[in-house]
Design goal:
binds oxa(dethia)-CoA, alpha/beta, 13 strands, Peroxisomal Thiolase, Chain A, domain 1, 24% strand, 2 domains, 332 residues
């Protein structure tokens, strides 16, 4: 009898633009201050993709290239590229489509997943299913957002949290049980009122009026989202542990979406995890939406060990939220 195939993460790549936007820079743009931003969010600076003609795919490409180099494969070996993003290069075709062309991933098909801050987790679950089916051998899952393209830099409550960045993982079949173990994904469209983009879709196509009313920027009711996020991310992470008969002691790392340090702290505490087991880089990159979780894996890769149980958790616009349990497959 053939063994069960699991989808193991076998390489990680990441990309953050060089340009930094610090809290002190923001002090000059809106009525805010470094102390408020740090104490309310944990963020000190974020990265911004500058330059004419630069889009989300221009962050996906270097992240995926790096991952291919690490694994010693050519982009032509990629079967499928999935990009979680709410800032696609264009409404269509998909960013995955454009990135595959730029990468020379000639044998890949691909698509984008729109699930805001949960975009990477939704994409990872989908990518894992493609591997588990036995039909695909190399699936790249990317979380990438150029949030600076949809942030209103006159709205002090929103512009302080977001940044640009991309992270990617390679999924390959594994017969020893490593990789994606379980995933709980949730969505509640009634939460769309609190975090959305008002215009540019089929509901309200772009017009002079929508541009003048600033309706092509991310609109967020921060406090309401915060309340749902604290409960949603903590609940689903606790449920994932319980369902897999694990406690905080069995978990090597929590990899939380980096939206607000206070949301991260609440999730860690609900799971019974000390701060030393939580990946946090929000101070450097802010909230890169779908990029946060793979960017953490990218930064912490050298500290991960084969067999580590890690929990990835996210909450975001939609509302969308979820948690995924991974048994790490390699030690660098
Ligand atoms: O990525 C996934 C989805 N997003 C999230 O998970 C984000 C969740 N929400 C948050 O992280 C927080 O709600 C924010 C960081 C966005 C805002 O923090 P808050 O503690 O919820 O602030 P608030 O909106 O309740 O505002 C509190 C006060 C207000 O002043 P008054 O009315 O009390 O006088 C705001 O006007 O802080 C004021 N304020 C600011 N002051 C200085 C709002 N933004 C700023 C600012 N600088 N940047």
């Amino acid at each position: 009898m053939s063994k069960k195939i699991t989808a193991a993460i076998t390489a990680v790549g990441g990309y953050v633009p060089e340009d930094k936007l610090t809290n002190f820079d923001l002090e000059k743009m809106v009525d805010t201050n470094d102390e408020w931003i740090r104490t309310r969010t944990g963020i000190s600076e974020r990265r911004i993709l500058r330059g004419e003609g630069k889009a989300t795919s221009d962050m996906v490409v270097p992240a995926v290239r790096q991952l291919c180099e690490k694994r010693g494969i050519s982009p032509e070996e990629i079967d499928c590229l999935i990009v979680g993003t709410v800032t696609p290069d264009m409404v269509f075709p998909s960013t995955a489509n454009i990135a595959c062309d730029k990468l020379g991933a000639k044998n890949a098909w691909g698509f984008d997943v729109s699930a805001a801050c949960s975009g990477f987790l939704y994409s990872l679950t989908q990518g894992a299913a493609l591997i588990e089916s036995g039909r695909y051998k190399k699936v790249v899952v990317c979380g990438a957002d150029k949030m600076s393209a949809i942030v209103d830099y006159t709205d002090r409550a929103t512009c302080i949290i977001f940044g640009d960045g991309a992270g990617a993982v390679l999924l390959e079949p594994n017969e020893e049980g490593y990789g994606i173990q379980d995933s709980i994904l949730r969505s509640d469209g009634s939460g769309s009122n609190y975090l959305h983009m008002k215009a540019g879709g089929s509901l309200k196509p772009a017009s002079i009026e929508t541009v003048m009313a600033k309706e092509h920027f991310a609109y967020q009711e921060g406090q309401a989202v915060f309340k749902f996020a604290v409960k949603g991310m903590a609940d689903v992470s606790a449920e994932l542990l319980e369902r897999n008969k694990l406690t905080g002691d069995d978990i090597a790392w929590l990899v939380p979406h980096q939206a607000n340090l206070r949301i991260i702290d609440a999730t860690a505490s609900r799971m019974g995890l000390p701060k030393e087991k939580v990946m946090i880089n929000i101070e450097k990159y802010g909230n890169t939406t779908a990029g946060t979780i793979p960017l953490c894996l990218w930064e912490w890769e050298s500290r991960l060990n084969k067999g580590d149980n890690i929990v990835l958790a996210a909450f975001g616009g939609g509302f969308t939220w979820g948690a995924t349990l991974v048994k790490w497959a390699y030690t660098v």
